[in-house]
Inverse folding.
């Protein structure tokens, strides 16, 4: 098992928030990434077992989403937006500069494992362009110079207090919500199925079949 | 009424550093709308929203009250909030989620009470790391305050709310894709019919899906009455709207403005708003409602910010995000980048969208980079026509969802408005703006 005892307990809390365990699949992937940085194959198997689907279904879902990594990434993922508002304000030049100074292409990770560079689609912060996120924390509009400083700060650990690990909802516990009781959910589902059967019966032609 | 004298319905707490905290929220009238709603019948609450004539603020602009009335009666129904804001150049929900999460939660609770739904999910875009933390913390505090959970404010009404993080996929803003995603699957839009999740939604049960800004309007509407909301704006576009302005203006930002009574010119040029075009350049074109919308030129700058007014002029107010391009900007490059976005975000279910977006992106790329051919313009329009037959507005659809027919908008606009610029790229073998 790859999840720590504490994270396994958190995983079970997350599953209890939903009427169907599978709904916790993406939150659990975020939790795994908070712990490991990316989704190792054995972690995907563990998530699958926890929510009751096959490992292939976890991988199939994870590969659909930009934030879920099925290959290892650096400690910090830097996302440079190059969509329309940022494009008009020098984002393509910033991305080119980033590739040059980091010595990697988009999707690559620096040799020291510190930084992965990503070209992002619109990050919804279009009045501060060009927009950059680090591990999905906004770091404000970046010039070529401030970008280099940002990278130096990240490497020196000077941003660790404001930019936590991968993962989401890392610093706030999800202690409230549905706390679904499986028995209650099962009873509701049975009641719904019965109601549906009644509706079907009500619509069925009267008089039986010909035979 | 001067443009700055409009009531701040969704941005009332914007000046406070601690606008996201329960303390500030309660000190500024927070949860009073919910308390009032709980003294009314659910039908009366829904009726206020109907009177307000609140149009959904997500992009399609469907009346919220009508959406609610379509919810199929069933013992188990759900309310799902769409906070997956990803339409390029749209950043108003981001602001509302980060700066006033309690207002959003109060709106959700009012809607849940009106609909008599006891389970609500707030789906927040995964990239909003801070926003997710803010809304989860607000929810934790609201539970402690007795506003959420069992028997809220001793009213006898119980409601549970779950904050759900997305994981990065534009298509999950489409409401049926969002439900798939919330069920733990790939974000594939569902085949229609049923056209509305109000019939078959989350886990196959009747579900109302509403946008963040739509919900954020509800506390004010209940406190001040639907009629007061409907008195703002004109025609079908009532109330205010939070417009996101970006691109080549001096003051990009999110501005809450009265619908219809304000024009694109006000938004772009008023000193208290956009402040005009940066530098000494001139307005070249602007996108009136997110990158799915056809473009407008300087001739349309006096159009009012109203849903039908923009619709009748051949585009859409969409997500309320305006991108300004000036005379130094290359429209081929802009259309290429927007198309690249759609090619990347197409979910891949439908051939016209999946293949067409990639073809269009590659043709635009070669024109921008100087290896285009003259027949490429016809090719672009032909491929576009295969995704959205007739290239009309509102568009025809050959795909499961509206992502497909959104692709040609910028291409068709750019060619119609700036054909000469495309030809110049081809003739000179290079981008004249590079």
């Amino acid at each position: 098992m790859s999840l720590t005892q504490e994270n396994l307990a958190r995983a079970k809390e997350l599953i209890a928030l939903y009427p169907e365990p599978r709904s916790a699949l993406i939150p659990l992937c975020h939790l795994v990434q908070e712990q490991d940085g990316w989704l190792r194959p054995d972690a995907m198997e563990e998530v699958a077992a926890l929510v009751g689907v096959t490992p292939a279904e976890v991988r199939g879902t994870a590969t659909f989403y930009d934030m879920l990594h099925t290959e290892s990434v650096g400690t910090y993922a830097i996302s440079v937006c190059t969509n329309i508002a940022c494009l008009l304000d020098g984002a393509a030049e910033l991305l080119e500069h980033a590739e040059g100074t980091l010595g990697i292409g988009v999707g690559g990770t620096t040799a020291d494992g510190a930084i992965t560079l990503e070209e992002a689609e619109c990050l919804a912060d279009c009045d501060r362009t060009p927009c950059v996120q680090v591990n999905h924390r906004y770091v404000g509009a970046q010039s070529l110079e401030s970008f280099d400083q940002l990278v130096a700060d990240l490497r020196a650990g000077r941003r660790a207090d404001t930019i936590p690990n991968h993962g989401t909802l890392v610093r706030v516990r999800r202690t409230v919500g549905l706390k679904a009781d499986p028995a209650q959910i099962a009873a509701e589902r049975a009641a719904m199925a019965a109601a549906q059967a009644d509706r079907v019966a009500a619509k069925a032609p009267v008089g039986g079949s010909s035979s | 009424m001067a443009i700055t004298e409009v009531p701040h319905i969704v941005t009332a707490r914007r000046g406070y550093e601690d606008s996201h905290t329960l303390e500030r929220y309660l000190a500024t009238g927070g949860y009073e709308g919910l308390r009032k709603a709980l003294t009314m019948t659910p039908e009366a609450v829904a009726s206020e929203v109907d009177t307000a004539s609140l149009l959904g603020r997500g992009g399609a602009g469907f009346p919220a009250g009508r959406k609610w009335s379509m919810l199929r009666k069933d013992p188990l129904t759900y309310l799902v909030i769409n906070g997956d804001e990803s339409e390029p150049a749209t950043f108003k929900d981001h602001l509302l989620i980060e700066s006033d999460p309690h207002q959003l939660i109060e709106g959700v609770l009012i809607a849940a009470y009106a609909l008599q739904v006891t389970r609500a999910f707030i789906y927040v875009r995964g990239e909003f790391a801070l926003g997710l933390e803010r809304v989860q913390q607000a929810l934790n505090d609201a539970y402690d305050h007795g506003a959420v959970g069992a028997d809220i404010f001793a009213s006898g009404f119980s409601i549970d709310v779950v904050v759900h993080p997305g994981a990065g996929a534009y298509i999950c803003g489409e409401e049926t894709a969002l439900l798939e995603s919330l069920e733990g699957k790939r974000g594939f839009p569902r085949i229609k019919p049923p056209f509305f999740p109000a019939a078959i939604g989350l886990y196959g049960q009747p579900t109302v899906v509403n946008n963040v800004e739509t919900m954020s309007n509800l506390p004010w509407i209940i406190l001040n009455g639907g009629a007061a909301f409907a008195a703002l704006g004109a025609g079908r576009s009532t109330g205010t709207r939070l417009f996101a302005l970006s691109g080549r203006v001096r003051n990009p930002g999110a501005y809450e403005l009265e619908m219809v009574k304000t024009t694109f010119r006000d938004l772009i040029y008023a000193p208290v708003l956009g402040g005009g075009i940066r530098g000494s350049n001139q307005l070249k074109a602007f996108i009136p409602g997110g990158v799915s919308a056809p473009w407008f030129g300087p001739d349309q700058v006096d159009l009012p910010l109203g849903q039908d007014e923009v619709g009748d002029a051949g585009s859409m107010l969409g997500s309320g995000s305006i991108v300004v391009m000036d005379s130094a900007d290359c429209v081929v490059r802009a259309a290429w980048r927007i198309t690249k976005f759609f090619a990347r975000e197409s979910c891949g279910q439908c051939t016209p969208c999946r293949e067409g977006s990639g073809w269009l992106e590659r043709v635009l790329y070669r024109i921008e980079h100087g290896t285009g051919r003259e027949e490429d313009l016809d090719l672009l329009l032909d491929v576009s026509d295969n995704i959205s037959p007739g290239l009309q507005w509102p568009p025809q659809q050959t795909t499961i969802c509206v992502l497909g027919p959104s692709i040609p908008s910028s291409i068709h606009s750019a060619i119609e408005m700036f054909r000469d610029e495309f030809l110049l790229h081809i003739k000179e073998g290079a981008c004249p703006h590079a």
About this structure: Chain A has two domains: 1-72+172-202, 76-155. The helical segments of chain A are 5-15, 25-36, 41-51, 55-62, 84-87, 91-102, 144-155, 182-203.
